[in-house]
Amino acid sequence: MRVDLKGLKKIKMGNIQRASFVFYLLMLITLGYFLIKSTVSAYLNQGVLADILTKGKLTVLTRNAPTTYYEGPSGPLGFEYDLVAAFAKYLGVKLELKVLESISEIIEASIQGKCDIAAAGLTRTEEREEKLLFGPDNYIVQQVVVCRRDAKIPKKIEDLIGLKIMIIGGSSYDERLRELQAGLPSLKWETTDDLSTEQILEKVWLGELDCTIADSNIVAINKRYYPELIVALPLSEEQPLAWILRSGAKDLQAELEKWFENFKKAGRLSELRDRYYGHLETFDYVDIKIFYKRIKKRLPRLKPIFIKAAQKYDLPWTLLAGQAYQESHWNEKSESFTGVRGIMMLTLPTAEAVGIKNRLDAHQSIMGGAKYLSRLIKRVPESVKGENRLRFALAAYNVGMGHIYDARKLAQQLGKNPNSWQDLKTVLPLLSQKKYYKKLKHGYARGSEPVKYVDAIYNYKDILKKNFLTSVSSVNRKKSHDR
Questions:
Q1: Could you say which of 80, 198, 255, 327 is catalytic?
Q2: Among this protein's residues, is 80 annotated catalytic?
Q3: Which residues lie below 8 Å from residue 294, measured CB to CB, with a gap of 6+?
Q4: pLDDT digits (tens, 9 = 90+) for 261-308
Q5: What's the structural domain count of the chain?
């Protein structure tokens, strides 16, 4: 029998080729498996920073307070807000703010991983560091005892015994008092989650409480509004404020520390601190003696501009002058901690909106302020009539129209007239109380401020009207708000 050697050779070569093909195929499948497994594993185990960049947003917990975050006349403000917004911009992601009502809630939500960062004026303490991850220190404060200057003032820690003291719950103040209580068992205090530190300070000012505990930066801001408050004594050493980071977020912590160091070296942290804390003085709303002096020294060169603006925008010149004095004491170089500038203290966005190039130019500032006030009057609901429209607009100039809309809504809920300034001025201060502002669209506002603002302007206006009666009547022939 003849054997076909060529055929056998072909079959053998074919089998080898098929075996090689199967081998290489199995190798590719195995390699693909490990590549996919490695990719999935990397995705499942990516750090917090990578997660933030992938989602394209930075989720931040905060609270409504003048030292942290609040809605100003031209948008969001607050030391913590500006700082975290700068970090989000650096990362190139959207900032998602979630406002919670108390420090206790914020800390608990942080522990549960419901945020990337908690930026809410939180003190770094040894007790908190045992369970929380912190970012770099952004501000140094000291806990202080605050009382009314005309009440019994404690001079040492032991003097706190027997006093009516209230503080916010879950705070570093509570932690410090518990430390002191270990050596002073008779030391007692009340805690609350329903009020903010600012509201408790107001209660001390009203005489409803003997004292409270607050951070020095909070006291510095609020002494402008409650000048009878006094710092009795320090309760702690200096302590840092810092952000709380999501648990295990070491990569985010490293990136934050790198950014923060550059932010600080560039001088931007100092600028931010100066913006919010560099000009804190007790604000004097009505000082008639000084006002009369400035009528003689400062008003003469400005009066023609006030009259010109009043004629153009159909406003009483005395009211514009009174508003300008309330804003800047007729100082065209004036600048506040929030960045507003000039005689009419315009924000940069407002100045741009009304076509003002130089806010420090008296003529431009006055004309721009009058134009802006005129626009605000038009935004007041038509149901608001007469003099009320002007008062509503002035209040909006100070606190923002959004908060005026909120106050009107709240007035209706409370059975008050939302179209009456007399009713609205009793409602506006409620915007600083948590039980009211938490249900409103625009949130927290220092609502007593626009009330004092409007009252002061009308006081100045009435004095000017008596001094310049002839000028007032000649300017306002068609329509006058001076009645």
A1: 327
A2: no
A3: 325, 329, 330
A4: 999 988 888 878 877 776 554 445 346 778 888 999 999 999 999 999
A5: 2
